[in-house]
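ASSEMBLY PREDICTION REQUEST
Request ID: AP-0331
Submitted by: J.K., bench scientist
Number of chains: two
Total residues: 640
Priority: normal
Notes: Please return the full assembly, not individual chains.
Input sequences:
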Amino acid sequence: MTATAVPTITKDDLARTAAALRDFAVRTPLVESAELSRRFGAPVWVKCEHHQPIGAFKLRGAYTAISRLAPEVRARGIITHSSGNHGQAVAYVAKHFGVRAVIVMPETAPQVKVDGIRRHGAEIVFTTKKERERKAQELIDRDGLVMVAPYDNLDVIMGQGTCAFEILEDQPGVGTMIVPIGGGGMLAGTCAAVAAIKPSVAVWAVEPALSPKLSAALQAGHPVPFEPVDTLADGLVPPSTGKITFEYIRPVVRGAVTLTEDEIAAGVRFLFHSMGLRVEPSGATPVAALLAGKVVPNGPTACILTGGNVDPAVFARLVA
Amino acid sequence: MTATAVPTITKDDLARTAAALRDFAVRTPLVESAELSRRFGAPVWVKCEHHQPIGAFKLRGAYTAISRLAPEVRARGIITHSSGNHGQAVAYVAKHFGVRAVIVMPETAPQVKVDGIRRHGAEIVFTTKKERERKAQELIDRDGLVMVAPYDNLDVIMGQGTCAFEILEDQPGVGTMIVPIGGGGMLAGTCAAVAAIKPSVAVWAVEPALSPKLSAALQAGHPVPFEPVDTLADGLVPPSTGKITFEYIRPVVRGAVTLTEDEIAAGVRFLFHSMGLRVEPSGATPVAALLAGKVVPNGPTACILTGGNVDPAVFARLVA
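STATUS: Completed
Returned structure:
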């Protein structure tokens, strides 16, 4: 069992990356939940990544990675595989740079995410979740496209790390951060930022009980492949935790907690009815973990609400 | 100066209309703003209509009107003119009933609203703001479509009135309601609901200073035509206050206040940074009126945030 060596991400790296994002992404607000603060006796904030232009944090990583490509490389066009939000981010950024984008998606992706990608003019190739990585490779071989991986990419991780960087700027007293984990891009960025800026912060990961990839990886000491499953948290079911992301996560994260579908739904409902926020199930998992008593705040706590792209009919059913 | 006789809307009418909406629209939350409550010494809530499936309250009226058409009439297809949100609502409802929808829109409508209409499969006919009513009539004459007017329609007004009905259910102690006014559908529904349920509530209307249609109408005693103008509040610039809506508004509303473009922008910024809400400029005007000191709350206050459909680039610029 050999650890992959990954470069250290410094506070300076994050500050420069965050500054470069300013003209492109929103510096999202960190909003206090009066009800959760009361309940836990310490401030609880939510970081509103669902209010990024594409409705999810993925813009941070996609812009960082694509903007750093050499122009002649970028001009060949971008390809990625995504269950939705990363695909929307790549489509949005590619349009900004005027280059082609191809998104390889599972057929089960929510319509709202498919529509978002189409709206930004990207091409979509549908495939099964199992085959999406192979399908992408075929297109790279055929068309010379550049892969911008959804999470196992250093620039993507650095971009996602700007979210925790902003949290630590806004509320330096934060003691706990709770982060959803799919492939681990946001969690790796958060762990890197915490390691660089305030190592005492307790970082907790949250994942669907139907697909406990990080729990399994932490136990095994390496990423473990998982079969695709249907869960409300459709953004948190890649084939496994990333290899690179895992190296940033493992030394920092306090642990991974798993949530049932009902617990995830309760998080969506709470955010809507108590705070007026429309957050997708994947993005609601940090608050759901607090509500379920599965993470106990260590002082002031920030929950990263990673996205808000949920099909209207699904949403209406969840909050009814 | 003759007043048009309009039928009284009863609490029972509103209760039945609200119940019929339950399977179709969201019962949106009424969320307290801790900061505004502190500032004014009484609870201030925002009613989150921007979280309806199409991102605006217009679903209430469009569904109510279209669902009440005789099936054989509805089957001929629906037409309307709209700057965006009513068009999205009609498109969404028409899709639900499997009938054709044609939306006559100004060429200046925000792209996000155009996209929303297209996504729901409606046809769009672009025209100038000045010509949109004439253009719609041409299509009615040619294709036999049924007009579902954006505000001067009793069922639309009744549908919009369910919003204030829900506010009064959730917070019977409310003393002030602040409502944006364009053609007056939401304001008329609010006035009708307040008259039926709690006449002591002070209802205030808010409009852009660049297009003070209700202020002019209240002074003249009848709706006054206005030239189209460009304002951040793109949802609040129909050719005039409605004739029918005005009859519901006039006896109830305490007054209309006007906001500068900067004041409107400040409302958008506040809702985002203080509450994490992404609200379009038109929808932010009630909170903007409070922030600008132009409405002083009479006890517990509800602000109706009418919609959230704002072009991402415009939004990013507004909140930066």
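REVIEWER COMMENTS: Chain B has a mean pLDDT of 94.
SIGN-OFF: pending second reviewer
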